[in-house]
Amino acid sequence: MALPDAPLIRALRGDRPATTPIWFMRQAGRSLPEYRELRVGTQMLDACLTPYLAAEITLQPVRRHGVDAGIFFSDIVVPVLLAGLDVEIVPGRGPVFADPIRTADDVARVTSVSPQLVAEKSEPIREAVRLAVAELEQSGKPLIGFAGAPFTLAAYMVEGGPSKEHLRARAMMHADPDSWHRLASWLSEVSATFLGAQVEAGASAVQLFDSWAGSLAPADYREFVAPHSQRALAGITDVPRIHFGVGTGPILADMTLGGTADAVGVDWRLPLDEAAAIVGPDITVQGNIDPAMLQAPWDVLEAHVRDVVARGKSARAHVVNLGHGVPPETDPTVLTRIVELVHSI
Ligand code: CP3
Predict the structure, then answer these.
(1) Cβ atoms within 10 Å, residue 242
(2) Residue 340 CA, distance from chain mean position
(3) Other Cβ atoms closer than 10 A to 260
(4) H or E stretch including 36?
């Protein structure tokens, strides 16, 4: 569904609709009691592959908060799970791979699987998207599809699990650049396939999450990562494309991927007027409420949100969001209040 008049889609295309659109990364999930209730007895990745559950969890925060879009409930590791990798999500920790991808042989084995397999196995994903879109379209709200970018996915796969500095993935770039490029290139096709399945089933925008891109030196980002991320997004031409990472101030211009992205996500470290000056007049900015501020007294949080909206005026257009995901301990009534505030400004 294209939904060209929805505020989110207009802002991503460069317009300034009457109300500034807002959604939250990780708006679905543990901050919502209705999510915790629905997830009892079901593993995270099983929930992702059960269409009515994935659709229902996608819709919960839209109904509750009145945000301007749903973000498809899934996870960045779902497409590599569909490609046959042994991965689970350990609660409180994150994705853990049974067999980390460390050597040239590991990379050769993993990349011998055709990304086409992901397309074939994505029927539960397409079905969940269709179910979510059927309800969202009644209120004219878009669904945002997403995928993990090659570097962030590789950061988990090479390490075998979450890591602070993603040293093993960054080391592979320099120790065995051929294997790195082979792995990242394969991941770009896998992510593109996963995004394509969601768009085919009705998603009206996509976001590529390169959450950990900020851990890279700019020169390494340009040489080892940006071309692969660009390929992951380049095939998605019918809907607007958002590119997000944390701590990306030094590489923000590169994050536009030469114009392949319509919008870049900005975390809380970089004021949006500075971000707008970096990315220029052809890119929408998305962000950047500090998740830590969600714990602050309302008057402090309100002043922060107003400041974010005011600074966003420097960009060609602005989609309000957090600088990273909703922390699980967030009081959801605070999120609803932020949506009402942003819509009233
Ligand atoms: O509401 C949404 O934003 C949509 C759903 C979504 C999830 N994961 C659901 C999820 C999205 C967009 C993601 C992407 C994702 N997954 C990223 C990129 C975004 C980011 O936060 O930077 C990353 C790095 C992952 C990997 C991952 N998956 C982590 C680090 C975790 C947290 C582990 C934990 O328990 O703290 C997950 C699990 C996960 N993905 C949960 C949810 C709702 C929590 C699962 C649960 O309820 O136990």
Answers:
(1) 23
(2) 23
(3) 18
(4) helix 33-39
SS3 for 145? strand
Q: Whose CA is nearest to atom 4 of ligand 1?
A: 73
Three-state DSSP class for residue 79: helix
Ligand 1 pocket residue status of 28, Cβ below 6 Å: yes
Say yes or no: ipTM exceeds 0.90: yes
Task: Give the global pTM.
Answer: 0.96
Tokens of 54: 């994935």
Closest to 229 (Cα-Cα) out of 208, 259, 252, 211: 208
Residue labelled with tokens 């995004």: 195
Assigned token pair, 113: 């699987």
- The Cα 29–Cα 35 span in angstroms is 6
Domains, in order of start, for the chain: 7-344 (3.20.20.210)
Strand partners, 243: 208, 264
Catalytic one among 35, 68, 75, 231?
A: 75
DSSP state of 326: P
Residue position matching structure tokens 């120790």: 175
Q: What is the mean pLDDT of residues 29-55?
A: 96
pLDDT at 1: 61
